[in-house]
Design goal:
Radius of gyration: 17 Å
Distance between the termini: 27 Å
Low-confidence stretches: none
Mean pLDDT: 93
Structural class: alpha/beta
Number of helices: 8
Number of domains: 1
Number of strands: 11
Order of helices and strands: EHEHHEEHEHEEEEHHEHE
Length: about 240
């Protein structure tokens, strides 16, 4: 029997929202259906990290005058809210799902324990990691890299909200922006490309974790990215 490939899917919090709705049930259902399409191939063990920017960004709150650690903890709680919304949408589609949090909220979700997370994945559950790393000053990009390294996932699917890859400049501002098909981790760090924060990029480099950056708003793209189709930018 072919061994399943273990993946981390990184979703932005904004992907769950729509104008006027911080969490749009229809968007959440659409994303859950896309994840199910990939899961139903029977080739992957899937872990998910979801951001909290649709509700609160710790960095933004700190810029408004809030103490940074407190702001970041609020952001971590926002990611748990999103994780629970996604968990319910996946379960409504018949998928067994576990939300595991780095912050201890036993009434809401299981605490994150590495060996338990791996066991859940091996049993065929989709595992959603909420609460970031559990520490302030780290982004959910860093959480993606850290959890991937911990559970032995060698690929992170960076599902972007309307961006189809990595460019040398902002394609929304410049028509001359060049899209990269492939990059090395060193390229990302040295060119300061805004794929993920430098801590996350360095973790991926040190642990030889491949990153696939693609537009999740195109139907079927999560499945295509999981299968390794050429739809975005690959960093390895």
């Amino acid at each position: 029997m072919e061994k399943k490939k273990r993946l981390i899917i990184k979703l932005s919090g904004e992907a769950l929202s729509s104008p006027g709705k911080s969490i749009d049930p229809l968007r959440v259902k659409e994303i859950a259906a896309e994840i199910k399409d990939a899961y139903d191939l029977g080739k992957f063990e899937i872990g998910i990290i979801v951001g909290g920017g649709n509700i609160l960004r710790g960095k933004v709150a700190s810029e408004m005058g809030m103490e940074r650690s407190s702001a970041d903890y609020m952001g971590m709680i926002a990611t748990i809210i999103n994780a629970l919304a996604l968990q319910n949408a996946l379960e409504a589609l018949g998928l067994e799902t576990r939300t595991m949090t780095s912050l201890n909220i036993p009434q809401v979700a299981e605490p994150y324990i590495r060996r338990k997370a791996i066991s859940n994945l091996e049993k065929g559950m989709i595992v959603i990691f909420g609460g970031g790393t559990g520490n302030p000053f780290f982004t959910t990009d860093s959480t993606s890299a850290l959890r991937a390294a911990e559970i032995g996932a060698k690929t992170i699917l960076m599902a972007k909200n309307g961006t189809d890859g990595v460019y040398d400049s902002d394609p929304k501002l410049s028509k001359a922006a060049k899209k990269y098909k492939e990059l090395t981790h060193r390229d990302v760090l040295e060119k300061r490309l805004e794929v993920m924060d430098s801590t996350a990029a360095a973790l991926c480099k040190d642990n030889q974790i491949e990153i696939v950056v693609f537009d999740m708003n195109i139907k079927g793209n999560i499945k295509r990215a999981a299968l390794g189709e050429n739809i975005g930018t690959v960093i390895r």
